[in-house]
Protein: Ribosomal protein S18-alanine N-acetyltransferase
Amino acid sequence: MSERSDFLIGRASPEDAAAIAALHAKALPPGWPESDFAASAVEANRALLKATDRGRVCGFALFQFAADEAEVLAIAVALDAQGRGHATRLMQAAFELCRERFIACIYLEVAETNGKARGLYEKLGFRVVARRDNYYRHESSASETALVMRLDTVRSAVDPEISSP
Ligand SMILES: CC(C)(COP(=O)(O)OP(=O)(O)OC[C@H]1O[C@@H](n2cnc3c(N)ncnc32)[C@H](O)[C@@H]1OP(=O)(O)O)[C@@H](O)C(=O)NCCC(=O)NCCS
Structure:
């Protein structure tokens, strides 16, 4: 757990699933079922991290691991808690877990128009590696392009040979 005043980052448990599902549905409707988050909290190849502010879940990040790659499946911060570094700290805590697992690169997918999320990912060093045109289909609006982003430096912190030229 990392700590900063009343704010904590840590592993979520199945008991946090309802709060996380509600937060996710608000941030990225329609969201996913609570049961998916409850299962993810105990799945060996996933990490469900939560940010809490005085006990209230105000953000979460869900990572999946496969071989030496990881994928960011979801991340969201409650609207009234955004802009205070919660997502940055959630991602950094997940990077720590990636290092422990000798993960070589992390992938994610983001809507091209999602400026806030793209800002977060770019700041953390992710770079666009592919475009998927018309990937997201919304009932009420036109389809949207997805960008695939990758960060492949997390391993260097634990394996000096990989970072040396
Ligand atoms: C994307 C999201 C998780 C960022 O959470 P957050 O806690 O506000 O992020 P942080 O405070 O850690 O900010 C990290 C960076 O994100 C970017 N960012 C955050 N808010 C932003 C805004 N309003 N406008 C532009 N960029 C923004 C900035 O690059 C920021 O870095 P900076 O503060 O050094 O400028 C949050 O906006 C969110 O939940 N959005 C809805 C869900 C979503 O889109 N998830 C991602 C799906 S791929």
In short: Confidence is low (pLDDT under 50) at residues 156-165.
